[in-house]
Amino acid sequence: MILFVALLLTSYMQAKTNLVLAQDSSQTAHTGLALIGALAALVKSCVIIDVFLFVVRHTLLGATATQGFAFVDKAFWRYVGASLLIVLGILAAVVVLSLVVVFALGSRPTWWWPMALIALVAWLVGVRASLVFTHIAIGNTIQWRAAWQDSRGHFWSITLTYLIAMLPLIAVALVFVAGYELALRDMIGAAYQAQLIALGAAVWMYATCSLHAACSAWLYRRYAVQLLETA
Question: What's the rounded Cα separation, in Å, for the pair 202 and 36?
């Protein structure tokens, strides 16, 4: 409940700042509200990590493992560190690949080249390293090699598991956005737009994070071999 309330509050802050920014063109307001929005996004990212850790522990270790749940512990910082390493690795790979493309073609590539490379590398690395985050969530250290070995040969299975599980929530999000744009925006008026957006975003995000964590726990049970030996 605390995590959901935190998601709701941060979603409201982001929605409210975005609506105000769309109406106010002053530079001072833009700077201040942008900082508030960035802070809300940072807090929301931390809450999302906590939701993942909580659901994975509850699924794999049982309800007793979530009693006295600490919002910031060693597993939290390991998760953050692993995420940052992956982001830096992806950026480094994209830079190298972009340079290769530049030298191979002899000209500067269009803007979508780096974006496509980022998406492709993020997909590949994210799937292959996905088991390590579940391993971290249940109190273990980061084991890149073991996670990479355990996911070998299961790339498409892992991808399709996440995709199929998320399809209903993607459909719900599309229906909500379409309904909001076509009807709800004018019906509720400007006064309640931020509340509606925040509520919809918080519910959807909490459900998505919980489902993602449950899928990760199931995949860990199915494929983790080398990781279990290092636990």
Answer: 18
The pLDDT tens digits of the residues spanning 113-122 come to 777 878 888 8
Q: What does residue 115 show for φ and ψ, rounded to 5 degrees? A: -65, -40
**Cβ neighbours for 127, distance < 8 A, ≥ 6 positions apart:** 151, 155, 158, 159
Structure tokens at 102: 């530049």
* Residues contacting residue 23 through CB under 8 Å, at least 6 positions apart: none
Q: Give 10 or 79, the one with higher predicted confidence.
A: 79
3-state secondary structure of 189: coil
Answering whether pTM is above 0.90, one says: no
pLDDT category of residue 27 using cuts at 50, 70 and 90: low
**What integer best gives the mean pLDDT of the chain?**
85
**5-9, 38-42, 55-59, 102-106, range with greatest mean pLDDT:** 55-59
Chain centroid to Cα 15, Å, comes to 18
The answer to whether the CB of 219 falls within 8 A of the CB of 130 is yes
* 21, two tokens: 């920014």
Cα separation of 12 and 18, whole Å?
10
For the chain, what's the residue count?
231
Give me 65's structure tokens: 């493992």
The answer to whether the CB of 173 falls within 8 A of the CB of 202 is no
